[in-house]
Amino acid sequence: MAQVTDYRNDIRPNWCPGCGHYGVQAAITDAVTQLDISPEKLAVISGIGCSSRIGGYFYAYGAHTTHGRALPYAQGVKLANQDLEVVVCGGDGDAFAIGMGHTIHAFKRNVNITYVVMDNHVYGLTKGQTSPRSDIGFVTKTSPHGSFESPLPICETAIAAGATFVAQGYMINRAELVELIKQGMQHEGFSFINVFSPCVTYNKRNGYDYFKENLTSLSKIEGYDPSNRAEALKTLGDYQGLLTGLIYEDTTKPCFEKALADANGGPHARALVHDVVKPDAAMFQGLCDEFK
Amino acid sequence: MQKRKDFIWKMGGQQGEGIESCGEIMATILAKEGYSLYSQRLFASRIKGGHTTFALRIALEQIMTVGESVDFLVALDQETVDMHGNEVRNGGYIICDSKVNPDFSKFEGAPVTCLAVPITETAMKQGSLLMRNIVALGMSVALLGFDKTPFKKAIAERFAKKSQDVIDKNLNAFEDGYTLIIEKRGEGDVDTLPVPEPKDQMFLLGNEALALGAIAAGSRFMASYPITPASEVMEYMIKKMDKIGATVVQTEDEIAACMTAMGGVYAGVRGFTCTSGPGLSLMAESLSMASMAELPMLVIDVQRSGPSTGMATKVETSDINAACHNAHGDYANIVISPTSIEECFYEIQKAFNLAEMYQCPVIFMPDLQQGLNKQSVPSFDLNRVPIERGKMMKEEDLPELERPHYFKRFELTEDGISPRTIPGMKNGLFLSTGLEHNEEGKPAEAPTMHVSQTDKRLRKLSTVADVYEPFLNNAKHDECDVLVIGIASSRGAIEEAAAELEAEGVKVNHLQLRLIKPFPKEQLMPFYEKAKKVVICEQNATAQLADLFRINMPNKCKLHSCLKYDGNPFTATYVKKAIKEVL
Predict the structure, then answer these.
(1) Which residues of B524-543 are buried (b: 16+ CB within 10 A; e: fewer)?
(2) Residues of chain A with pLDDT under 70
(3) Concatenated DSSP letters for A247-265?
(4) What pLDDT score does B129 carry?
(5) Which residues of B are less than 8 Å from A63 in CB distance?
(6) The predicted structure's pLDDT at residue B1
(7) Stretches in chain B below the pLDDT threshold 70
(8) Which chain B residues have a beta carbon less than 8 Å from that of A257?
(9) Cβ-Cβ contacts under 8 Å for B157 (sequence gap 6 or more)
């Protein structure tokens, strides 16, 4: 069995003391430990930003890519080697501003990877600017009179775009978050887990007290059914998105890899990650003959 | 009877009238017979309507251009007569559908034969306007003096899945078309081509050759976004996905295409993407990361006219600067351009090898002329270019790794190239990042490490020009009056211009450049030094290739440019004139 120490390297995170991201890293570590995923089978792909530095904080294969582009990269990794457990991490700026085009398409494409967004409603690494998730009225260096753009309702957006697994967690509620990450990894398709992860330096408005007061766990809502799309959207509306737990799951839609294999008449005899070799000579001759 | 060297046939009309398919049927059959062919499609960036032409040059020797003057022009509309009539050479024919009451007054007294022929009416006799192209095919076969038999066989095969009635109607349309011409000019002495030796040939687009090349290189992973003139590569890969066991993803944009392919590359497959200028611009940041993270990423850029959307269906080689320099920072990459459609197949396989041998991004850039036109080429040899993966490690050879140590994926080696592992390999763990990093991939901003790693990334490219044949060598002379250097599709026009000049007593050496970055200075130098004048042919206004010579080569006063940026390909006449001006 794996130990939590198996995923620990000797790099000290550049996060501030009290940053929520420590809790997210701990929760991911617990999840992969409990699922017994060996470090060489784990690929942590991240974008750019405070939270995206997480790709280098696990003892695993880590790829720290470009701003907003972790998702396309991670989908490439998974499609090339389906034996890998691919976890994508980033912040709300990475995911919902510069990377939003990719995020929407990842929801609808449904490649079997897990996306953990550390959502603190603010830009941290660039030292405090407004984010797509900032509340109206939030004062930052780039919104001195208070932000006046609507905060993006990301879970509703995910469901509307065709996401098959939409969950939300709070890094303080570790047990719930670990379960959500594990469920996400086990879900066959794209799993989106938005995690509230307070920024103690640049967001005094949405700090630990704010989330403690305002979040409701779905476990407290009797009879909540995450397979009911309409109920998920209504409940999100009722609580202004301030929910934690598994919000929506669709287990009927096949993941992209499976749909592609089915369209091709079943999985190919040779997995992609097998050695790069010349194609079968007779098959190749057949392709050439079509041009004669 | 005079035996000629080639025929140039051209058909024009509105897009969507089946003009291309008429030419294609003819070409497929003639390729089988052993003729060398080069086709050229001119079209507007729209789906239906708009003037279009399809030209086919038929020759006995291998040809690399469509040539200049036309022997037979088949026009379905007046526009074709007006726009292309003056391309018809002395003794040639202009044949126009009598339905449009063609106005030939412009050609009164000219040494060309103008005929109005009931093409539409003949097609309608068989019941459908759609058969105009088959009527035109019959006419063309009669004009060119070819044997009818293989064409009739091909028509029967083409419509084999339809009813016998459809086959019969098409055969009748063909016969009627053939008869129309024979009636007009008699069966007698047709100035046709000799019958060649049969050859094992393929007739295909450069874009199709690129896809076959990627397949032959063992690539089964592509992510791409549609763009003219490159989409055919992705379309072909998707069409054959089940056969080759490939995964091809049409992504949301070119950034995603590049990053998805790069993710695949990081995971160990030969991923690639294919685009044109606007897409290459979008990929710039990703490619900068591929350089930093030393990912063997291959990008095909089928060059079209720019800047911006430019002329999406017209040829240019104006992405040279972008391919070399569009990514930020001290960017280490390789840029290669194939010199023919055949090379689209072979050189791309070498490009895949170079990417893995040098662990850096490779931009492979044909031009639109190569990508979107069909040529007959000797049948492809699957095994001519073996797969080479450079310093890729095998899992079983990796020494034991002890946490928290990582595999030294970015080891500072003498040649600058480090051993490579991929996710999934036990004992191969490393960190990949766009940040400056140490040998294990851990972020490292110490000045010494940045200098060492930068030097390593740049040093590794110093041997590319020794390993890869940097140009096609058409230099016949030890010393020459003029050295002509071209890239991409300019090859054919240069070769024909050089042959004409040689016949006039000018000593011409010709090199067609394949390796653009790193610039093969040492390999070019002996040719450069022994030339009185140097002319660089390229399809852009800013002399981007010539600039590379100005930066790298001595004696700049002997450098001259032959530029063309009107969207149309080089012709031998154009190149010859430019060379004569500097002699």
Answers:
(1) beebbeebebbbbbbbbeeb
(2) none
(3) EEE--SSPPHHHHHHHHTT
(4) 87
(5) 263, 266, 293, 431-433
(6) 40
(7) 1-3, 44-48, 186-190
(8) 247
(9) none
Residue B348 pLDDT: 98
pLDDT digits (tens, 9 = 90+) for A17-28: 999 999 999 999
For the stretch A244-263, pLDDT in tens is 999 999 999 999 999 999 99
CB contact under 8 A, B221 and A80: yes
How far apart are the C-alpha atoms of B142 and B152, rounded to whole Å?
Answer: 13
Instruction: State residue A204's pLDDT score.
Output: 96
* Closest of B129, B154, B157, B130 to residue B141, by C-alpha: B154
Q: Which of residues 210-249 of B touch A (CB under 8 A)?
A: 212, 215-216, 218-221, 223, 240-245, 247, 249
Query: CA–CA separation, B236 vs B365, rounded Å?
Result: 18
Out of A55, A84, A277, closest to residue B218 by CB: A277
The span from the CA of A176 to the CA of A167, in Å, is 11
The pLDDT of residue B2 is: 47
| Closest CA in chain A for residue B403 | A9
CA distance B94 to chain A (A): 30
**Where do we find the tokens 């940053």?**
A19
User: Is there a contact between B270 and A276 if contact means CB atoms under 8 Å apart?
Assistant: yes
Q: CB B442 to CB A11 under 8 A?
A: yes
Token pair in block for residue B365: 């850039």
Q: What is the pLDDT of residue B19?
A: 86
Q: List the single residue in B218, B382, B433 with the smallest CB-CB distance to A276.
A: B218
C-beta neighbour count of B448 within 10 angstroms: 8
Q: What is the pTM of this model?
A: 0.96
Categorise residue B37: left if φ over 0, alpha if ψ from -120 to 50, beta otherwise.
beta
